[in-house]
């Protein structure tokens, strides 16, 4: 018998479309949505906030680590290409090592850091920004619809939301996909999911380039 903790289990947490069991792995259940093609982990398999925070602390990202800096380079280059030091930015979900904040601040950019666990400054969510960086964050969203609505509302007109994540493609063998093995990764995006977000939240563009998704307001 399939476990069914509550009535929402069978609805996609992003678009509320119907979702079907996609894969079962180590007693974890993943679903794919028939509407947006997003893949979500069963809610009952989500970590508790305490467990989740512990996992993030284990990541222990060092902002001076060159490998880590290179990893976030695409998002940094995109921001520097599109915006200047006069624009306001937000590093959303920055985690223990806010590397984007560090690199941009070192270059005199004006960027604030927010993270519900490690930089919890709710006042920063009451302002508007020209650009928002979400680097390896959106795959951790328990409530992706709620999060994208919040991010959209934080953006100024002509602003941009940069999301770095590993998109799921049809040629990937989900069973052997490293990205799903992190227990904090609960929602995976496909190109179709990106299109759904672009349409639903009325972004002008939703462009995918490797790991970088750019939504323009
Ligand atoms: Zn969906």
Overview of this protein structure:
The chain is of the alpha/beta class and 217 residues long. Helices cover 26% and strands 25% of the residues. The strands form 2 sheets. It has a 6-stranded mixed sheet with strand order 5-4-6-7-10-9, with helices on both faces. Strands 1-2-3-8 form a 4-stranded antiparallel sheet, with no helix packed on it. Strand 9 and strand 10 (212-216) form a beta hairpin. The protein binds zinc ion (ZN). Zinc ion binds next to loops.
**Annotation field: number of helices:** 6
Q: Fraction of residues in helices?
A: 25-40%
The poorly predicted ranges are none
Rg over CA atoms, rounded to whole Å, is 17 Å
- N-to-C SSE string, H for helix and E for strand: EEEHHHEHEEHEEHEE
Task: Tell me about the largest β-sheet.
Answer: 6 strands, mixed
Any idea what the shape is?
globular
Average residue pLDDT: 93
Alpha carbon gap, first and last residue: 45 Å
Strand content: 25-35%
Secondary structure: number of strands: 10
